[in-house]
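FW: tagging you since you asked about this chain on Friday. Here's the raw sequence from the shared folder, copied in full. Didn't touch anything.
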Amino acid sequence: MSTRYRIETLRIESPALAGNPLGDPAVRELPLLVPEPDGEEATGRAWPLVFVLAGFSGIGRSALADDPWSEGLGRRVERLEAEGRLGPMIYALPDAFTRYGGSQYLDSPATGRYEQYLWTDLLGAIRARYPIGRVGLVGKSSGGYGALVQAMRHPEIVSACACHAADMYFEYSCIPDFPRAFRTISRHGGVDGFLAHFAASHKKRSGGLMEAINVIAMASCYSPAPGAPHGFDLPFDLQTGALRPDVWQRWLAWDPIHLVEDPRHQAALAKLRLLYLDAGNRDEYALDVGARVLAARLRALGIAHTHEEFEDGHMAITWRYDVSLPLLWQALR
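HL: got it, structure written out here
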């Protein structure tokens, strides 16, 4: 059966994001890739649903972009189906962006209710439009983190999870950025000065700025503090740069390496029809090491999973969807 996909964009007025503390939009677009096998309409058929979660500083729609050397998601899934490796599924591409660059797909009093947005607003809107079958998650980097953590937290919804270079083992992946972020934030006179400089900058993705805004974004998710000036605590002291152990422990509580110690999360992962994780063996954030640590813990717990490494770094690894999407199809069909 040949399948073509059309892009359908839903306009979501999100109660979960209404009045969020950063003033970010509560009305957002949700692009869907909808299968049309042999020209049939998808309405009336219960397709598997896969949420494709964007990484830090990205939005779901970015996955659709083609360039001469890299397929967008639409071309990729059509090719994989033509090769007989994939069947028709609906793909949802959420926008969970914040003014700081990302939400980690978590509810936080410092950013907004992005976990609720995902499962109440977006899933509800899709179910109102299409009958769907099993639900899966896939993502890379912060998107991989979101896929893994949401699979742990929502076994009543999620049946399969694939995470590429997911944020984890924060001792290796986060701490190296702290002194660089400290210097950048200090250079601009503190968080207020840095955020003003960042907002005015024409090159927000330059190295020093990205390291600092990434730490601020993660702090808003992992160490929110409603009484603090910006609603979060940084993991280092702004006068000396020294690590703040109490705040750092709050970050570690959100590390998948520690989340998996919770028996409820173990039970959720054990129920999955697929738990897939990989990372490049030259990952610049040592997420290959993190994946090894998590895989060892999963083995010790007797939780079925597939763990792979591949020859590459952290960037431009969407080609790994050639591996994960067929596995998701087999698990969700």
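FW: The two ends are 15 Å apart (CA to CA).
HL: agreed, and The mean pLDDT is 95.
FW: great, closing this out.
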